[in-house]
Amino acid sequence: MTLEPDSQTNLNSQERDRLTNIQPPLAENLPIPIPPRSLSKPFWTKPVETSDPWLLLTAVGLMAIGLVFNLAWLGFTAAIVALMLALQVILPSFKSWILRYLTVQERRSLIGSLSFILAIAGIAKYIGFYDLVSQWLNTFKYDEFGSWAEWVGALGQIMIAVLAVYVAWQQYVISKDLTIQQNRITQQQTIDAYFQGISDLALNDEGMLEDWPQERAFAEGRTAAILSSVDSNGKAKILRFLSQSKLLTPIRRDHYLGRPIFDGLGGYQEDRAEGIRVISLGVMLVAADLSEQDLRWVDLSDIYLIRANLGYTDLVKANLSRTVLYEANLENADLKGTRLFYGSLETATPRDRGHHPNYETGERTGTVIENANFRGVKNMSEEQRCYCCAWGGENTRKTIPGGCEGIPNKLGR
After folding, report:
1. Which pLDDT score, from 0 to 100, does residue 219 have?
2. Which residues contact 294 (CB under 8 A, 6 or more apart)?
3. Could you write out the three-class secondary structure of 247-281?
4. Rounded to 5 degrees, what angle do the CA atoms 110, 113, 114 make?
5. Among 75-84, 146-155, 209-218, 364-373, whose mean pLDDT is lowest?
């Protein structure tokens, strides 16, 4: 029997109404599920942890019972069990201690030392050393040399003395390291205070450069004092600060009050010929140790570095024009882009105290490098090599990388 389409529609509509009117059962009418009873397992079926202290104490107790009642089988078995359980607890802790307090190199050294001792002991066994010792002990006259207990006691005292010396040495090393660290912290605090003091002297309330003659004198005095009291690393920090702050650069001044003149680009005009520096280092760095320091882009022009140590120093783009490097050590220094003079190579000459420099032609703007050491310098350009060969003198020419063949000695000595 086939239903008509509208009959099918009515049936579906009635079915939907019936399903819609069905209400879900209320929560309070639902039965409350009862959780199943948890059955506790017997203690002999529970997993046993080998690191349980009670298990260790039980094994030790059984060993004690075997010792008291003279039960060898019980005491020996309990001792073996206690030993194995104790090793399972001790070995992980010992391993973590070694990994934490010993570096990889120290662990290798320890294993190497133990292997060395065992190897010596094994070699002594195979060459018959122990047999010789045994024969000597059998023929040894104990009455003449006393008992072995006295010898062992003397050896113990010697070992205690050696241990005391070792402990004292370790305490000295630790104390020395702490002293060095404290000195480094104190030096950094001193340098920070110097930076703040120089800034307060050279700048006014508006942050403009205002360096009157007496303020410049105070700044130079503070600089000379701190440069003589810090190490090479501290000197390099101070030089980088002064150079980047343009306090070592000669600045153009007006001819009335000596005020610095702006360059129209947010800075001050540089005047190499007649400018005045806020701080002039002068002879503050004579015989100074500046080895292995970073002096890139530092303005070291027109100062005295007589007998200074600049070995392994990074002098990339540093300005050494008119600097006196007499008997200075520049071994293995990096001279990439370092300025040694102004003008052209053909007309540049070293500084002369009796005449003013000419920064256009380069006359009297060059570095004084007589008796300087240039062995192993890196990135020396051809122009720098020619200048050093021409104006360095015989002793300097011997240290120039690449030699000075074909370049005349203009210094004449």
Report:
1. 92
2. 236, 240, 313, 314
3. CCCCECECCCCCCECECCCCCECECCCCCECCCCC
4. 90
5. 146-155
Report which of 250, 260, 267 is spatially closest to residue 342, judged by C-alpha positions: 250
> Per the structure block, which two tokens stand in for 90?
């001790």
Nearest-angstrom CA–CA distance, 397 and 401: 9
Taking only the tens place, the pLDDT of each residue in 163-172 is 999 999 999 9
Give the dihedral sign, CA 72/77/80/86.
negative
Kindly report the backbone phi and psi dihedral angles of residue 147, in degrees, each rounded to the nearest multiple of 5, phi listed first.
Answer: -80, 160
In angstroms, the Cα distances linking 69 to 59, 66, 78, 326, 367 are: 16, 5, 14, 93, 97
Do the Cβ atoms of 367 and 323 come closer than 8 Å? yes
Fold of 281-413: Pectate Lyase C-like (2.160.20)
pLDDT at 143: 62
Q: What is the pLDDT of residue 92?
A: 86
Tokens 């009297």 correspond to what residue?
364
Looking from the CA of 339 toward its CB, the CA atoms found within 13 Å total 20
What length does the chain have? 413
Chain region(s) in the chain for CATH 2.160.20.80: 281-413
